[in-house]
Amino acid sequence: xxxxxxxxxxxxxxxxxxxxTKIKGLKSIHTAQKGDxxxxxxxxxxxxxxxxxxxxxxxxxxxxxxxxxxxxxxNPQHTFYKLIDxxxxxxxxxxxxxxxxxxxxNTKIGKNVYIGDYTIIEKNVEIGNxxxxxxxxxxxxxxxxxxxxxxxxRVTIYKDTYIGNRVIIHSGAVIGADGFGYxxxxxxxQKIKHIGKVIIEDDVEIGANxxxxxxxxxxxxxxxxxxxxxxxxxxxxxxxxxxTIFAGxxxxxxxxxxxxxxxxxxxxxxxxxxxxxxxxIVTGKSGVWSNLEAxxxxxxxxxxxxxxxxxxxxxxxLKLPDIYKKIKKNL
Length: 331
Prior knowledge:
By secondary structure, the chain is of the alpha/beta class. The protein has 2 domains: about 5-85, MurE/MurF, N-terminal domain (Udp-n-acetylmuramoylalanyl-d-glutamate--2,6- Diaminopimelate Ligase, Chain: A, domain 1, 3-Layer(aba) Sandwich), CATH 3.40.1390.10; about 95-300, UDP N-Acetylglucosamine Acyltransferase, domain 1 (3 Solenoid), CATH 2.160.10. It contains 4 helices and 37 strands.
């Protein structure tokens, strides 16, 4: 696409268009070369735009003394993301049922479905329209899958799972495994059989090697629009709210309830039976041990520091109870 065509696509004004160059690639402002287009998020970073070798740039406001064409848009970053979709569209798989796939006879399969090699689909499964199931995927009995779902290679879906429309599940994810539940009897750990379900609502994306356990009796629920990163652990009976985001290595213990529009940063760990309100943000590596009130930001992580300094800090931390007693006594 030429620069003028890109501007027209987004109903945008273009300035300094001396040559209507054909754009061949999309790059960051640091790595862009001739034939590429880039974007600037903040006018205060205009010095970066002065150094870029790109042939065009998305900006919110015109930048003075910048000789390359500038496409003026309300949100340069979002517009750039949309242009990525235009330049690099996903190529849908053509409808196909691989000969090596094992599909139970009473499975209901919708229109335009792709089923890859060595996929196993058990009995009483329902699959909607325009579904893509990549090779080596397992789908357990009584599972229902909506329309426009993508299951990448080696996804494992245990029985009695419900998956809504436009859900994306990446490679290695395991949906519906037993929860980690045992009781003690005769000095042994006795397994608690989990007979509940997992429900994944519309427009959810689940990252690679993430695990979502089935409920013991009821339902583990991932609500509409939630986005879950790689290597996340969601235990039995958890409820994850709408549009909530979990970064990598987040872990929820059993029966945790997370509200809508929550952000849990990387490696946040949440104890069991905790309730997290709507619009909460928890910073990375934090441990959550009590309920969190809606609309607030929380964090308890300790950032990395030079080792010998940390040992001195730890020595003081271990003495804090005694120090506190002395201070309290003298008050």
